[in-house]
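tool=predict chain=A
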Amino acid sequence: MTDIDAIMRMAPVIPVLVIEDLADALPVAQALVAGGLHVLEVTLRTPCALDAIRAMKQVEGAVVGAGTVLNPRDLDAALEAGSEFIVSPGLTEPLGKAAVASGVPFLPGTANAGDIMRGLDMGLTRFKFFPAMAAGGPPALKALASVFGQARFCPTGGITEASAPDWLAMDAVLCVGGGWMAPAGSEPAEISAKASAAAKLT
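tool=predict ok
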C-alpha cells in the first residue's frame, strides 16, 4: 500500500470531488487522469459517493480515496468501497485510532496547534489544513509549520488556481486540495484542460 506521503507527492493538486450523479463518476475520473491528476478525493457528501469511488477505481492510473470521512462508520464504508486513502475534515480520537489501526493512508484535517499535536501523538505527520482560507490562509499555516517541523500539509478549502502557487511555495506544503478542475456540469475536455494546468502548478 502506498503511504500518504507518496500519495501527496504524486501531483501538486488533489481534486476534491462532489459527485451528485453516478453517471458522471467515470468520465470525470478519466478526464482528470488524462490531464495528469491521478489522486482523486471523492467526498462522502452525496448518496452515490461510495458507488462513485467504486466506478472511478476502474480508471487505469487513478488513485481513489474518500473525503469527508467523519467517524469509524464512514471509514469502514469507505474501505469496503475500495478507497485507497482517507481524508477527514478534522481529527477525533475514535476516527484517528480506527484509521491508524486499519493501516490505510490517512490525511486528517487540522486547523490549529492542538489538532496537529493530537495527530502527532497518534504517529501521524501528514495533515490536511482545513478550512485553509477561513483558518487564516498562508500566514496561519506558516506560523504552525514553523513549530511543527516534521509535519507536512495539504491545504484545502477556498483555494483556487490563482492562489494555489502561494501555498505550494511553502516548504511544509506537499500539495493542495481544490475543486476548480471539475465544477458541476463541466465537459470532459474542459476538465482535462484544467487538470493539465493544475498538474503543472509549482
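Residues 22-34 form the longest helix (13 residues). The radius of gyration is 16 Å.
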